[in-house]
Amino acid sequence: MHNTTDIIQELESVDSISVEKSFQLAQICNSLISANNIDGNKIAINILNNWRKIPVNTHELWTNIFEIAGFYPYIVKEHLTLNNTVSELRQGLHESSHLPSKYFHDEQLEILNILNNGKNVVVSAPTSFGKSLLIEEIVASNQFKNIVVIQPTLALLDETRKNLMKYNDKYKLIVRTSQEPNKEIGNIYLFTAERVNEYKYFASVDFLIIDEFYKLSGQRDDERSSSLNNAFYRIINRFHPRFYLLGPNIDEISHGFEEAFNAVFYRSKYILVDSQEIDIYKDHVGEFGDRGKKRHYKEKVLFDLLVSLRNEQNIIYCSSPNRVRYLAKTFAEYLKSINMTTSQITYPISEWIKINISEDWMLLRGLEFDIGIHDGALQKHITSSIIEYFNTDKIKYLFCTSTIIEGVNTSAKNIIYFDAYKGKNVPIDYFDYSNIKGRAGRMMQHYVGRIYNFNPPPQVNETIIDIPFFQQNPIKDEVLIQLDSNSVRNKEAEQYKNILTIPSEEREIIKHNGLSVYGQKRIIDILSADIDTKYDLIAWATPKYKQLSYILGLAWDNLIQPTETVMPMTKDHLIHLTFDYGLNKDIYKLVNDRFTYLHTLERYADCDQSEIRDEAIQFIFQTMKHWFQYKVPKWLSTLNELQKYVCQKHHVRAGNYIPYANAIENDFIRENLSILSEYGIPSSAIRKIESKIPTEIEQDNVFEFIRHNRLHLESELIEYEKEKFLQNM
To answer: In angstroms, rounded to a whole number, what is the distance separating the alpha carbons of residues 185 and 163?
Structure first.
């Protein structure tokens, strides 16, 4: 019996491997691969990582083993020569027919073969498997005219859009719900689940892709699981497309799903990157903590480790945006205190931050030492710039929240598992840990990644993903109401009978809106009771404070899910912020107002100006991303439909909240220019050229108009803004 860990440690520790040792390791490796033991892959990967140590006269032997393991992408990358015609033929079979110079490993090819044989595929595979490459292969094959890609975040969708822009001669890329499909060529709809449910122009869908499909599960406490179930059911039930679902580290899906949908659940442990665990916490038993001296000691150990890894890229997992900013800022101060040389790189975004946010924002200070941050609160263009700097090896340190798991496609040589929670109270489970660990190393870039554990890894357990719209036990009301009666498994269930007691007209409106079933029903009843006495609070287009307070108050009181986290926001504060934002149309005025307000609080009395400024920026950016660009517009559009129904029943003129909701969501950018924001153009840049673009130019033609009139080179634009335009030209 051979210990794989010992073999890998020996490979790392010696300067060279003897011919005899190389043959011995090859025999062990070949035996493990033949037995489908993943340790064989690990040894092969580490041999590649130490290739210069391997005797030249055993290279041919190892090349044969890499071929047996199906490592064709690496064989091509390292220019290794296969020694017989059969091997060359097999390599040829692994070459993409549609992507130049791309080769698939064994299991990627196996998945493609399943798809090509007419089956649907649900794939569970490690992060470094290369699942996303298969998305591009499906698009490049041009087999399907209309493709829907559902991803959980706008940041992921933006990356996918950039990757697929090269196919715009065959496909129109649709990223906004106001864009209509092209009837002459194909269409690729790049949507979150919510946008799929809102979209009105689907004529046909031939292929559906759901990335991070584990978010379908009703058991993982994700408030958006209902939206994803509804989007999946809507597309499958109406268009019956082929589909490809992909996600990491899943052991099982709902029983019977494969048979019902002509699908194969493909569970793989296949790896082309080895993640090595280094247990830092074991060397500091009893010395790490969350408060006082133990907290500072743990931070000092982290910072010293990061300094030692300064020539490699590092992602540091943190529990919350607050932690991200605190640790990134404290680390920058630490580097300054030890006289670490500042960055030799000029980041174009720095000028934009100084002009538009603050000369003293913590991100600006971090970039001086090649430190970046990534969380759900940052504006899209900032997020994409930070990831671009990281992926091009400029930024060396990236402090992240759980966006590392689901919000962006990036990897690093080193992952530091520093916090053991998501938010304040939710422990990282084995599924989350596996996904964090999976970011260590990168296929075709780092053969081996390392994860440094500052906490004991969670206990290993199985991850079973239920698909509620299919399994229906349990199922949320918001999903059950969407199902056709012939899709409902138990029509005698009290839950279903209760839904049927809602009048059919109301049920249709509630179903269309997709939010809390009984919350919407309560709002209908309240509006109906108030229509005579509070009509002026209901029927509006641009709200006065009392009108907004009434409508957003109804939404807050009735549409927030029991498991949803709203802190530190409160109902009154949200109403106040939304009204001020609508009045001044300036996010940075909100930052300054928040800064002034924090000065009045006793707990900030001893804080310096930069600390208070950072706090204000974070809070308003979080408000912008979560509330203004997501929650508030959705609530307003939902309440708009409910009040319209009630007003019509009472034969009075209804209000129209939609223009106001759209303005809030789009940062008060003109409707036909909002697509520029989707493409990661800062609002500051859009406003500088807004007057030069006619209002009648359709959104699909805006970029062409800018390009033709060279507006992206206007002297008013700073270099960063010009760069953002050029990335989309």
So the answer is: 19
DSSP per residue, 534-582: SHHHHS-SS--HHHHHHHHHHHHHHHS-TT---TT--HHHHHHHHHHHH
Matching residue, tokens 């697929």: 164
Q: What is the DSSP string of 73-135?
A: HHHHHTTPPP-SHHHHHHHHHTB-SSSTT-B--HHHHHHHHHHHTT-EEEEE--GGG-HHHHH
CB-based contact 88:209 (threshold 8 Å): no
Superfamily covering domain 274-453? P-loop containing nucleotide triphosphate hydrolases (3.40.50.300)
- Encoded tokens for 658: 């939609």
Residues 589, 575: Cα–Cα separation, whole Å? 16
Report d(CA 659, CA 540) in Å as an integer.
11
222 confidence band (pLDDT: 50, 70, 90)? low
pLDDT-derived band at 610 (thresholds 50, 70, 90) equals: confident
* CA–CA distances in Å: residue 382 to residues 19, 307, 366, 683, 685: 51, 25, 14, 12, 13
Q: For the segment 331-382, what is each residue's pLDDT rounded down to a tens digit?
A: 999 999 999 989 889 999 999 999 999 888 999 999 999 999 998 888 889 9
- For position 221, what pLDDT does the model report? 60
Provide the b/e sequence for 340-362 (b: ≥16 CB within 10 Å): eeebeeebebbebbeebbbebbb
- From CA 123, how far away is CA 213, in angstroms rounded? 9
DSSP per-residue string spanning 647-701: HHHTTS-----HHHHHHHHTTT--GGGHHHHHTT--HHHHHHHGGGS-TTS-GGG
**What are the respective helix, strand and coil percentages of the chain, to the nearest 5?**
55, 10, 35
Distance CA 665, CA 144 (A): 32
Q: Is the pLDDT of residue 1 over 60?
A: no
Alpha-carbon distance of 333 to 616, in angstroms, equals 20
pLDDT interval class at 441 (50, 70, 90): confident
User: Phi/psi of residue 206, each to 5°?
Assistant: -100, -25
CATH number (3.40.50.2030, 2.40.160.60, 3.40.50.2300, 3.40.50.300) of 106-267 reads 3.40.50.300
What tokens appear for 99 in the block?
């992507």
Can you tell me the mean pLDDT for 606-627?
89
Strand ranges (DSSP E) for 194-309?
207-211, 242-247, 252-253, 263-267, 274-279
Question: Tokens 């196919």, residue?
Answer: 167
Q: Is the pTM of this model over 0.90?
A: yes
Neighbours of 81 (CB within 10 A): 10
Q: Where are the domains of the chain?
A: 4-93, 106-267, 274-453, 503-665, 671-726
Confidence at residue 682, expressed as pLDDT on a 0 to 100 scale = 94
Q: What percent of the chain stands above pLDDT 70?
A: 99
- Sequence-distant (6+) residues with CB within 8 A of 286 are none
Query: Would the CATH topology of 106-267 be identical to that of 274-453?
Result: yes
Instruction: Summarize pLDDT for 658-693 with one digit per residue, the tens.
Output: 999 999 999 999 999 999 998 999 999 999 999 999
Residue among 256, 251, 243 at smallest CA distance from 268 = 251
Coil, strand or helix at 30: helix
> What is the length of the chain?
729
Start-to-end C-alpha separation, the chain? 58
Residues whose CB falls within 8 Å of the CB of residue 246, separated by 6 or more in sequence, listed in order:
122, 123, 125, 131, 132, 134, 135, 209, 210, 211, 212, 213
